[in-house]
Amino acid sequence: xxxxxxxxxxxxxxxxxxxxxxxxxxxxxxxxxxxxxxxxxxxxxxxxxxxxxxxxxxxxxxxxxxxxxxxxxxxxxxxxxxxxxxxxxxxxxxxxxxxxxxxxxxxxxxxxxxxxxxxxxxxxxxxxxxxxxxxxxxxxxxxxxxxxxxxxxxxxxxxxxxxxxxxxxxxxxxxxxxxxxxxxxxxxxxxxxxxxxxxxxxxxxxxxxxxxxxxxxxxxxxxxxxxxxxxxxxxxxxxxxxxxxxxxxxxxxxxxxxxxxxxxxxxxxxxxxxxxxxxxxxxxxxxxxxxxxxxxxxxxxxxxxxxxxxxxxxxxxxxxxxxxxxxxxxxxxxxxxxxxxxxxxxxxxxxxxxxxxxxxxxxxxxxxxxxxxxxxxxxxxxxxxxxxxxxxxxxxxxxxxxxxxxxxxxxxxxxxxxxxxxxxxxxxxxxxxxxxxxxxxxxxxxxxxxxxxxxxxxxxxxxxxxxx
Length: 468
Description:
The chain contains 18 helices and no strands. It has helices at residues 3-19, 23-56, 60-67, 70-96, 100-127, 129-135, 140-155, 157-172, 177-199, 208-231, 246-249, 254-286, 290-326, 330-366, 370-385, 387-402, 407-431, 435-460. The radius of gyration is 22 Å and the shape is globular.
């Protein structure tokens, strides 16, 4: 049999093998990856909501002070998110190809980049903390408190970034349980110290918003320690070498770094566009005043609860599609993409029902002010409507990233968040005078357009031919 016939036979075997995979098998494999992420994201989001609820009891100014620092912080995290996209995609592909040593090398090089970059960015964040809050449109009472909060958060920035790098690699290898345990424990620690330091309980000083920042950093440190402990156990696919020989393993490997950056670079552009768009959007909403902005932050916190659906199944899509393409099984990759999207849609409709009918009760948990509750419940009806499209683009974008096709998700962010959302928000808030509701209609329009763009790219099938 010549080479061509061998290739055809192998191709036919792959397709035949893929067709044997029924939905029950696919669902089982998807849920094996997704359920730890679902549990992790639910508990982490609940802890973050509890964090905001505790801060919210101090007043609207406290919610605004914490919320207004989120976009500058996430802007600084964008470079690491991009690196992590490259790390996850490469580890998944290399595992599919059976190259464990190279997968570990990707982890080591990603950690090197993360350490040096996080130190440099944290210094800038500490120096310009107050200026950033002013730039975001914070009023004087908000700027003073928010600037102090941001300095404390940035002092622990390295402890935020390294665990994100490690869990990104672990997800690529199919280990989502480690990330679940790590984040749940860290967030529980955060909540405990929130209670102790915000309100001054059990002999601890009452530090209010600064206490929330310190509690967050303590949670990051716990996350950092646990993530290193996980990697020092050599029983798993990804691991760290013994400390005495670590220097040899962590020598720069520019070939591996180049591969990480090549895949992650479009995601870096994506994250920069996302954060810049959100900065402009947040600045527009901040101009509505402290109470409106506090309501906006409550809406965003509740919206983040719905992200767990798209993100969890998106993580499953990233891992399983990356591994399937590493195995050269395109039909299997497509089957995983379709099934993760269908499963995510079912959950999306359930979440939409909760937001639509129980919006006022959810807002009350954060702040019982009648004006905030009324506006917030209307915001959540908008959130309910966008759930199906939100889940769709998050899951399919995750699949594209797993294939190494990071350019199209970046393009969708550029169009939706950097162009559609801020322009439409400016028109509806300032010209049409629709206030906060206008801002959230702009958010809904952005998400719908992104879902259309991602779906078009996925249906084209070009992602199956990407080389990493």
